[in-house]
Amino acid sequence: MAVLSEQKPLIQLREVKKIYPMGEEAVHALDGVTLDVYPNEYVAVMGPSGSGKSTMMNIIGCLDTPTSGTYYLRGHNVGEMTDDELAAIRNREVGFVFQTFNLLPRVTCLQNVELPLIYSGRKKKKRVEMASRALRDVGLDDRMTHKPNELSGGQRQRAAVARALVNNPSLLLADEPTGNLDSRTGAEIMVLFETLYRRGNTVMVVTHEETVAQHARRVIRLRDGLVESDVRVDDPALSRLEVSGAAA
To answer: DSSP letters along 51-120, please?
Structure first.
């Protein structure tokens, strides 16, 4: 991977705030976050409940917009985009993986993975070709015609990853991707994420689990809507953070 300083950031947050009105009070979910994420980084975002990590994920994934500050995705100011442009960005640039899989229960694995391609206007033959390749890439080539209730939890999450990747997005954004899986299956999903990272994908994982975060090459910790720490794997401070977190 190239030296980060020589690359242009994929994600740029500048003094991003998100304020939610709660009656007569205001909750500062994010209180001035500034950070860059570069192509082919593997980042874990951590923090206690209420730290702002889900809010930050929603903003980065273009599911929500900042109250103030700016967010640039591949150099484009997301705050200046129309609703249609934001929808196109979500479809083309961001692949989402959720804790609850979010697969349609009455259609096959292949048809679930085709969905983003339908929204992007791909023709049927090309959709099948691209969806089939995505499923092969996550080891589900023998499960393409199965429906979600015929898959194990790990297979469902692999199908969700295939759907997230089928449009070749700039960013894979995963929210607690192992939360509904047993430890062995969760470890298999993290091996898959490692493989995707090594292939050149940019991966961001929002998690509260130290064992999941330890797979990342960079750990960003939030507290009270602010970045508390931002440590890369080659920084010796990371091991101290992991030990202190595991002991907490």
So the answer is: SSHHHHHHHHTTSS--SEEEEEETTEEGGG--HHHHHHHHHHHEEEE-TT----TTS-HHHHHHHHHHHT
For residue 238, the model assigns a pLDDT of: 46
Considering only CA atoms, which of 87, 98, 209 is closest in space to residue 159?
98
Cβ contacts of residue 232 below 8 Å, gap of 6+?
217, 218, 238
Token representation of residue 119 = 């929204």
Contacting residues for 77 by C-beta, under 8 A, at least 6 apart:
70, 71
The DSSP 8-state label assigned to residue 219 in this structure reads: E
Which is nearest to 52 in space by CA: 77, 27, 72, 23? 27
Between residues 212 and 247, the one the model is more confident about: 212
3-state secondary structure of 43: strand
| Beta pairing class for 94-97 and 202-206 | unpaired
| pLDDT given for residue 247 in this prediction | 35
